[in-house]
Structures are given as structure tokens and as C-alpha cells.
Prior knowledge:
The chain is of the alpha/beta class. The protein has a single domain (3-152), classed as Mannitol-specific EII, Chain A. It is built from six helices and six strands, in the order αβααβββββααα. It has helices spanning 3-6, 21-36, 40-53, 110-124, 127-135, 139-147, and strands at 12-16, 57-59, 62-63, 66-69, 76-86, 96-105. Strands 1, 2, 3, 4, 5 and 6 form a six-stranded mixed sheet that branches. A hairpin with a 2-residue loop joins β2 and β3. α2 (21-36) packs across α3. The longest helix has 16 residues, at 21-36. Residues 151-157 have low confidence and may be disordered.
Amino acid sequence: MQIGELLDRSAISVRVSAANKRKALAVVAEIAARNFGLDAGDVLDALTAREQAGSTGVGHGVAAPHARLDGLQRLRGVFVRLEHAVDFDSVDDQPVDLIFALFAPKEASGVEHLRALARVSRLLRQSDLRQQLRQARNPDAIHALLSQEPAHRPTAA
């Protein structure tokens, strides 16, 4: 599965303001609710429960929160770039400004979800991509960056 297949442009938000981790997750939950026809409170509860099991801050200013939710038909993603990084209890103790959240149907096998999570994690480990995502001006540019294979990635618009 390609990242572009699970991330709609309408589920990408840049220049998001959030004072802390919970507020950043609440923004992610609102975007997921609006785009996928879900209840924002249910999404936030699922994300928060996952964070209590261990932070999804994977390092280098990146977090990859994820949850399984009722009401989804397929794997979906939300990408948020924060205006100011927030503490996310990340593995490297660095604050987070790039958030790629994954949501899987509750009843789906975990294999596809884990593969997508691994793909997102590998993708966002690339320092050049992180830099381009931080410079991208709009959701279309971010979608293009995340949808391309590394050798074909365009420069940020």
C-alpha cells in the first residue's frame, strides 16, 4: 500500500497551533472525524489510550499515533504539521512538529495496519523528507512528498 492511497489531501493540515500533546491529538481527532465520518471524542479516546501504552513519538520531531476504530472501511491517515513543536514524550526527548496518524478498522487484521505503520516510520526517518515536509506550503505539496517513492520525490513547493 502506498502512503498516497491512505492519505487524502483533505486530511492534511499545515500551520496547526497546539499547546501540548493532548491538544495536538485533539486536532488529529477532529480532522479524522471530519474526513472519515467518525466521532472526534471516540477518535481522541482511542489515540489517548494508545499513548498511555507508550508514546508514539518516534524521534526527530515525528510522531506516528495510531488506533483501531469502529466505523472505518479501510486504513486511513491524517498528517498534521504543527507551527510550534510540543513535548510528546518521544524516544529521543525531542519535541514533535510532524504527526502522521494511522487509523485502521477495528475488525481488520493487524497485518496491514502494522505494514502501513512500518512504511510511515521508514519514510519519516529520512531527514531530507522531514526537512521538505517542514518547508512545504500547502497540503498538495505535502501529499506529493508523502506519495512519491524516495527516488522520485519532488522538492517542496
